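ARCHIVE CARD
CATEGORY: sequence design from structure
SOURCE FIELD: tokenized fold
FIELD CONTENT:
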């Protein structure tokens, strides 16, 4: 007979069915779920086979280690690789999920040629006028410099009516190369 436990999740609570629990004084625990998995209380897979050493009964530990060899190791590797990928994505420089995409589309940038052909600042434009798809830095970098152009967010640009009035039309070009990003 299983016991129903309620576990906190980021979205609320979920019910888990537990058949057996092993605990030690340090607070470590292993749960045998009703679906036959050895896992943590919330259902996340164990990280290593060594965690099954917590099970004192030799016969039950042997069964648990056999389960680990058949299913647990593959499940654990897959789960923690996916978790790490999600964490890396969340920790990245560009967090599109934090903003509504239509908000990013509404942000305007001005650009200025760099290098030998330094020129006037263009009037503010949306990303659709210069690129075939929205760059990942669009709306997140106040200023970004490429080998051919420097882009600056329109509302961050110092008011210089002479430069804006003398805006020139610069031919479209895909920016390539390394970039210096300034994000605040």
């Amino acid at each position: 007979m299983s016991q129903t436990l309620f576990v906190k999740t980021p979205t609320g609570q979920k019910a888990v069915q537990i058949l057996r629990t092993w605990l030690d004084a340090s607070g470590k625990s292993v749960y045998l779920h009703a679906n036959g998995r050895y896992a943590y209380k919330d259902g996340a897979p164990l990280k290593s086979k060594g965690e099954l050493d917590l099970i004192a009964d030799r016969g039950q530990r042997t069964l648990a280690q056999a389960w680990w060899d058949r299913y647990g190791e593959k499940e654990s590797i897959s789960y923690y690789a996916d978790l790490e990928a999600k964490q890396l994505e969340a920790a990245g420089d560009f967090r599109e999920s934090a903003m509504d995409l239509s908000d990013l589309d509404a942000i305007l940038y001005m650009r200025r040629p760099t290098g030998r052909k330094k020129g006037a600042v263009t009037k503010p434009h949306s990303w659709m006028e210069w690129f075939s798809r929205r760059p990942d830095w669009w709306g997140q970098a106040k200023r970004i410099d490429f080998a051919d152009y420097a882009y600056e967010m329109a509302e961050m640009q110092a008011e210089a009516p002479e430069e804006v009035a003398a805006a020139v039309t610069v031919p479209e070009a895909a920016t390539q190369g390394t970039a210096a990003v300034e994000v605040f």
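CARD ANNOTATION: Confidence is low (pLDDT under 50) at residues 156-161, 163-178. The two ends are 56 Å apart (CA to CA).
SHELF: design records, drawer C
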